[in-house]
């Protein structure tokens, strides 16, 4: 517990206040090109938010859960755990953006949008009602649309922004309609109250359609089938740090809300008469994993490959929901999903930031363009190798442990075939991830590419992400306890 | 005498489908925005009708939030469409194919 | 007990029948004299020029955007005003007023930022600037 109670929302408040400070700074001096200060405020703000959420997590503020504003906000272990993910990714991205945005205009706006999106995500993790969840989801999405289209003169960026926006707008309309149907049946928007009234709901058909539509809204935010079309486009066209931000933090935010709403508001035993959403998620998980990984294997463009692999990873995390069959330990598998998102937050952010580094150097976008890069920038390439192997699930980074937990949890819950599909897909993913490594270390370097400068903050962000990814391999034991406890607390 | 609540459900489902149809068939980005607006307003119909039916104000207040968000969404959307127009000299969503769809 | 909707149905029916019957009757009675002048947009006076679809200056977009912000603000303040009196009685002034002040404060920060970044600055077109220069 914590006094005063509203202080439990501090991570969100710190992010929001940081965005307002940036607004104020840019209002005082709109023509300023004092970029170190802008980037500094953003990094310090997100690090402060991260510090607060880690401290809360360790101090056990979320246990028992703190309910604010009549249950509209719920700060529990899961919310704090996800807030750690969002804030650390935001800090890494803000740090890397300083070099990436060199000499560009509208930098203040960039950081403002970044912080506002992070605020929205942090709010999503703590949403205690569908209304807050919807507003927070929009707060996370709207700045993201702007960020994807940030390179206004670049046709790819504008197109990516449009597609992301169109599919986002469609899916948020579907999400809102789903919420309205759930409200029609239950008469409340508070997640706890919905859970109470759907058990003996009168209209199973209306409720079923509503639940599926809400699930569709989550599928958009997490880049899962059937709303995954935007992901490869948006990630490829967006500035690379923004791709990192969207594919790690935004995806985690979608899962944060999905985990809470699906498990608390629609308990399986309560709504199974209306709709068996676990079955739907199982199908989505299998399709998402397979589609993401197979599409990634056929790409020639590294950024696009990473984009599809990010769709594949959404499929792995969906196992966390799909294995809630009622048999086995639900907390174990849901916690495994959270741990995977934490590790993914670092390794995937790092991988996209490496792409940002390559874009900064003017290296091309295909696998062949990365040939021999290791001779020019060995340190960064070691980091990239760590990311690739960790993403594939080899025991060089935390990705190995989190995938192991996920698959073990799935087997434990009696859906061994989900684990099997996941393992086969992981094996396939090793093929295309190792293509990057092969290109960097083994192939002969191409002529004409000159790696002359070493952008310090971009480098620092990549190396930090790599170090954390490696450290998480042995240290995950420390965090996993928090995740499993938090997941179990949400479920029961 | 009040209209019974399932008629509102049918009305909102109809409006939602009109919006969805517009999204699937129109190629103009601005018409796309209008269709999304229709879908959000279909949700609003449900919220207001069932707010009355359940006898609490949650739904009505939430419909105000939906309106605010719809306005924000349109503001951002038109900004992006402007950027699109400057780059491609058109607002046809199928013309922008620098990346693969 | 008669259904009160019958009255509405009857009203609808009458409101359709009257205008339709007037159109039909006059179409039957009047002589038909086709003439070019009758098809003009303005039957007397101005000859219309140009297209009906004119382009608005893009700067109206900014004005519209700022309008939307305050339009929506009003919508969100409205429910608050409804419960304000009860809220003050039950929870006291601070609990009721401060959240709304924070909300408006955030909007003011946004407005100040937009103002400083030139959202309300009217950039003149080159042609307008030229005419202004020639009259000086």
Fold and architecture overview:
By secondary structure, chain A is an all-alpha fold. Chain A has a domain at 279-492. Helix content of chain A is 76%, strand content 1%. In chain A, strand 1 (66-68) and strand 2 (73-75) form a beta hairpin. Chain B has 3 helices and no strands. Chain B has helices at residues 5-25, 29-54, 58-88. With 136 residues, chain C is mainly alpha-helical. Chain C has 2 domains: 5-32; 59-127. Chain C has 4 helices and no strands. Chain C has helices spanning 5-29, 59-91, 93-116, 126-135. In chain C, helix 2 runs antiparallel to helix 3 (93-116). Chains in contact: A-B, A-C, B-C. The A-B interface holds A 131, 134-135, 138, 142, 145-146, 149, 152-156, 158-163, 165-166, 169-170, 172-174, 176-177, 179-181, 183-184, 187-189, 206, 229, 232-233, 236-237 and B 9, 12, 16, 19, 23, 29, 32-33, 36, 39-40, 42-44, 46-47, 49-50, 53-54, 56, 58-59, 61-62, 65-66, 69, 72-73, 76-77, 79-81, 83-84, 86-88, 93, 96-101.
Give a summary of the structure in a few sentences.
The complex is a heterotrimer of chains A (492), B (101) and C (136). Chain B has 101 residues and is mainly alpha-helical.
Largest sheet of chain B: none
Q: Can you give the mean pLDDT of chain C?
A: 83
Structural class assignment of chain C: mainly alpha
Please report which band the strand proportion of chain B falls in: under 5%, 5-15%, 15-25%, 25-35%, 35-45% or over 45%. under 5%
The tally of structural domains of chain B comes to: 1
Summarize the biggest pleated sheet of chain C: none
Tell me the number of helical segments of chain C per DSSP (H or I, 4 or more residues long).
Answer: 4
Mean pLDDT of chain B: 88
Distance between the termini of chain B: 52 Å
Anisotropy-based shape of chain B: elongated
Roughly what fraction of the amino acids of chain C lie in strands?
Answer: under 5%
Helix fraction bin of chain C: 55-70%
Radius of gyration of chain C: 29 Å
User: How many individual domains of chain C?
Assistant: 2
Individual helix count of chain B:
3
